[in-house]
Amino acid sequence: MSRKILLEHDDVPGIETFDVYRKHGGYRSVEKALKTMSPQNVVEEVQKSGLRGRGGAGFPTGMKWSFLAKPEGVPRYLLCNADESEPGTFKDRYLMEKIPHRLIEGMIVSSYALGANTSYIYIRGEYMWILDILEKAIAEAYANGFLGKNILGSGFDLDLRVAPGGGAYICGEETALIESLEGKRGNPRLKPPFPAVKGLWGCPTVVNNVESIAAVVPIVNDGGDEYAKIGLGKSTGTKLISASGNLVRPGVYEIEMGITVEEFIYGDQYCRGIANNKKLKACIPGGSSVPILPAHLVTKTAEGTDRLMTYESLAEGGFASGSMLGSGGFIVFDEDQCIVRNTWTFARFYAHESCGQCSPCREGTGWMEKVLNRLEHGQGTLEDIDLLAEINKKIEGNTICPLGDAAAWPVAAAIRHFREEFEWHVTHPEESQKRNYGLVLPKSTLV
Amino acid sequence: MVKVTIDDIQIEVEEGTTILNAARQIGGDVVPPAMCFYSKLPGTGGKCRTCLVEVAAGSEKDPRPMPKLVASCSTPVMDGMVVKNKTSERVHENRGGIVEFLLINHPLDCPICDQAGECHLQDLGFEHGKSATRYKEKRRTFDPITIGNKIKLHMNRCILCYRCVAVANQLTDKRVHGVLHRGDHAEISTYIENAIENDFSGNMIDVCPVGALTDKTFRFKSRVWFLKPMEASCSCSKCSGKAVVWMFGNEIYRVTARKDKYGEVESNEDGKTAWICNECRFDKKDASKWSIEGPRTINRHSVISQNLYTSDRKITDKKLN
Asked: Residues A260-288: pLDDT tens digits?
């Protein structure tokens, strides 16, 4: 069943205004938390809910909050990471565009829980119109006494600001985001110290994804235990999935975790199958950084069980036959798509977005892009494919931040699962240039 | 004090010491190479990744190995930590990979580069590099630019260690130089090639591990290994006046700060780093302005030491010429 928790009332006209949102039950969690709960209670509820970070890594939010250092007399900060730049991911955009107050409500409750009196929403430069939407909504919240001094007479003060970045992918990495917010070049910091100890302006800081913060609202409203009942196992709650690619009905869907991938792709409530009566060739289930899966591993795991939309099930089989839920950027390829071309496109993106601070990522991403460019344009050799795999191994795990891994994984997975197609580009250079798409796979490998 | 084992050698160091500094206390070939870390410039390190080491046991309390290789220059030691540097096959392999990355866009113009002979990238390439490149593409190129009237920047040779940016941040009062762009098109530059006019900007040349920043008063004058490094001092109002003058006969060809075996500028007796000012570096080329104390030992892997030109050996003009 499709279940709307985060996107509840997203179809109500005028839900982006304070009055309509309030009429539909908005800001209840602020009232509940500030009047009846201690900050520690809120943290406990979030821990009970089992909410996992929705930005990609899936780290439990409650645990992240509990790591926050609380030295006396030092301010703490909550930062919302709205620098949604992962190719294939556009869920936060939808949420902020449609129901900006949901995020603001979540920010108030989360800031209360963490004891932050100044919080920032760091939004990517390409989302300028959403900046306007958020600022309007924040002004309304100030006017109605939900932001500013002494909120609802509880004695809790909160200033909420929106800070736009310059549109760099790297600023979605939490320490680069902090650097950028401080007005510096967006280079990731060395860890440790982690932001929970030394973050913004050297103070303890928590950085959370838009969706994670929005999910705090239903957790406080209904209680952590209730929220934990939704979903499956350790993947609790609902998840926003940005479905794109060759689908009949791409878009942002809120799903209860635990539905099968098959239902998500072919179900009537969701994407309704592959467009133009084509067959599924491959799928990237969690945004461009996660490994690509060939058709036979999308709906079934290597053991033959149904693949589910959960953190665990998508990762089943490790990197050999699994992938990751990541940020929920669900990209689907039909039989006419060229994997080599797609891999090159991603490599180009990462080479462009690498900050250039540490050598493996700076030089490695550029090198991979050049080799893939050669392969895609029919000038590669068979050794180039092995070379790519080698470069991958030297980048992976050796960089300061996860961008290096994010750049290496999709290339490694594409070679692992679609090696014939890379080889076909080498052995059939002319043919591969004539058509825009890659090797025609035997029908039996498609779903 | 905490106990740490590096390559089967145990040492006790102060808490908070990084793995690299602990290894330097042991010395010898246990020390991982460091291209970007510079102990005299706080905040440097972690970028080049050549100092990666394997941590086989995290600490006494939690003896699990760390899954990834860690940058030894920025990872503090824990009590009971077991580190593998030269004894780890994984480190050797990955360090080779990093060196390959650093060299793919490096022009390898050592025959005409002033840094040759005292270049850390040469040493690193010699120790960990491969004999042939697998890089078939065109190397990225930049035009050399002049920063200030005494410093030349060859961006092609740069490995983006950010050391000179730290010098600009920490030693000079008005920073006009930094990193522009990002990824593999990132470059060190000044705002619209502004001249760097500052008494201590010349120290960028000393901290540069490669030949990207060179001394314009010395460029193409001589190979470093043909010169005699002599410890010398002068009375200077701006700096400590303690330097190394590089002579040929009685002529001073260049002046540098006194560097230790890791290529880092030494400290004075008072614990401050003996950076030298631009006047001493660029303008005092007259031997009468310096009181020469004696020959300087150039340590570690430099080809200069291959001349057997050390302080315990008598130098004769015959040998030098």
From this structure: 999 999 999 999 999 889 889 999 999 99
Does residue B155 sit at the A interface (CB-CB below 8 Å)? Answer: no
CB contact under 8 A, A394 and B49: no
d(CA A280, CA A352): 30
Low-confidence ranges of chain A (pLDDT < 70): 1-2, 435-447
Residues from chain B that touch A366, judged by Cβ atoms under 8 A, are: 105, 140, 183-184
Measured in angstroms, the CA of A399 and the nearest CA of chain B are apart by 7
Which residue does chain A place closest to B180, by CA atoms? A185
Is residue A261 within a helix (H) or strand (E), and if so which, with residue range?
helix A261-266
ipTM of the complex as predicted? 0.87
Of the candidates B48, B135, B184, the beta carbon closest to that of A356 is on B184
Q: Where in chain B is the domain with CATH 3.30.70.20?
A: 113-121+135-218
CA A365 vs CA A332, A339, A359, A384, A404: distances in Å: 24, 18, 10, 15, 8
Q: Which residues of B touch A398 (CB under 8 A)?
A: 49, 52, 68-69, 94, 97-98
> Which pLDDT does position B117 carry in this prediction?
85
> How close B305 gets to chain A, by Cα (Å)?
30
CA-to-CA dists, residue A235 to A50, A59, A84, A317, angstroms: 8, 11, 22, 17
For residues A356 and A200, give the distance between their C-alpha atoms in angstroms, rounded to a whole number: 22
The C-alpha atoms of residue A235 and residue A221 are separated, in whole angstroms, by: 20
pLDDT at B261: 83
Residue B45: closest CA among chain A residues belongs to which residue? A190
Q: Which residues in B lie closer than 8 A to residue A374 (C-beta atoms)?
A: 136
Query: Could you tell me where the beta strands, DSSP code E, fall in A234-341?
Result: 235-236, 238-245, 251-256, 280-284, 293-294, 329-334
Model pLDDT, residue B319: 43
Chain A: residues touching B (Cβ < 8 Å): 168, 170, 185, 190, 351-360, 362-367, 370-371, 374, 387, 393-394, 397-400
Whether chain A has a CB inside 8 Å of the CB on B66: the answer is no
CATH 3.10.20.740 residue window(s) in chain B: 2-101
Q: Domain B113-121+135-218 belongs to what topology? A: Alpha-Beta Plaits (3.30.70)
User: Which CATH number does the domain B2-101 belong to among 3.60.20.20, 3.10.20.740, 3.40.470.10, 3.10.100.10?
Assistant: 3.10.20.740
Q: Per-residue pLDDT averaged across B106-128, rounded?
A: 89
Q: How confident is the model at residue B315 (pLDDT cuts 50, 70, 90)?
A: very low
pLDDT at B309 over 60: no
Residues A165-203: pLDDT tens digits?
A: 988 999 999 999 999 999 988 999 988 889 999 999 999
CA distance A367 to chain B (A): 8
Q: Select from B74, B94, B160 the Cβ nearest to the Cβ of A356.
A: B160
